[in-house]
Amino acid sequence: MITITTDPIDPAPAIDAARMPGTGAIVTFLGVVRDDGIDAMEIEAFEEVALADLREIAAAAAEKHQLNHVDIIHRIGRLFVGEPILLIVCGAGHRKEAFLGCEEILERIKERVPLWKKEFREGKGTWVGEDAHPSPGA
Predict the structure, then answer these.
(1) What long-range pairs does 51-55 form, CB within 8 A, spacing at least 24?
(2) pTM listed for this prediction
(3) Model confidence over 29-63: pLDDT tens digits?
């Protein structure tokens, strides 16, 4: 499953889906809203492009690292401290491939997927990251 959602992320179904013959390792990454003085975070995506990028990233990592299962779920909307933002689940025959695949997927998402984060502190929002927000005046 490769998806972008406003719904809360539950890792259990994705982990269960990765359990299959030939899978000896399931590596899971769960990114959460960090408690660094913010009240909330709002995440936006250019969904059509982001989904296409996520699919390409998953396919490339699966081929390169012999992954037999990849799930990527990215959340958008308003999230609060501790809530999951991103789930990556990689299944492979061996742990090394699963770890390498998961790490590569995470790095590629950060590099190329059109996602923007706005942090809220004391009611005031500020776009963060190398590519703040593309909308003028946002």
Answers:
(1) 51/2, 51/3, 51/4, 53/109, 53/112, 53/113, 53/114, 54/2, 54/4, 54/109, 54/113, 55/2
(2) 0.90
(3) 999 999 888 989 999 999 999 999 999 999 999 99
